[in-house]
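Hi everyone,

Forwarding the result from last night's run.
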Amino acid sequence: MKRILCAVLALVILLTVSSCKLYTPKQYAQGEADAKLIVHFIDVGQGDSVLLESDDEFVLIDAGERSYGDAVSSYINERGADELKYVIATHPHTDHMGGMRTVLNDIAAENFITVETDCATNTWIKLLKTVEEKKINYIDAKSGDTYTFGSASFTILAPNSDSYDGYNNYSVVTKVTCGDISFMLTGDAEKESEYEMVKSGVDLHADVLKCGHHGSSTSTTAKFLKAVDPAYAVISCAKRDDLLQQTGMLHGGVTGAVCEAAGGYAALTVLPEGQSLDRK
């Protein structure tokens, strides 16, 4: 049976050549895997922050609220990163980009990817000014563009329009691939953006899905979920039962998937292709 993992604390997903495993940081520190790709879902409370790591090259997607900036920066430093090859601000909401200016002031970055909007909030303007002052290469996110880091790559799948109501549907959606394993990272993309991705006909299948908008019922529609068909899903949200009860995974039961609240760290194992998925 497919499983949904509610990520309420930091998790580490490791991808090896022959299998994909989800370990706790403690297990990884004990040297249980030789990973080609590591996807870190960093604890930023009710927000998003994902660190991608492959062959000593790093990509940061979002950095939570401003109050989490130091924590995200420290986490990246602990991974031994002295530079981020790509930094992606999925969209201009503070629970995704509020801590990013702190990170960019602490850690060198080569490229900054985001989407053009009319946002003029103080936090967003200061972030863009920091990118300019530090001479970080600015990239306007375009659907279909692919970028490489280490042994992995990511392809931008959304946004596919230049006009939406609100900023969530402007979210930069990326599909991260390493070998035969892939991850769908959706920011706060909602129904409209999901519909556009499905309609585009692009291959949306991924082994792991980070549910849009913190598992809210505004996102992860039945058609999108069917197209992605993930073995596991991650919901990045605060550790609050009332928030978990609002998730599209928990009300409606569109796939009959099991939802497991981590309550801390979790360990799951994805076996090589052709074998079943079981709890470790």
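Confidence is low (pLDDT under 50) at residues 1-18, 240-280.

Cheers,
N.
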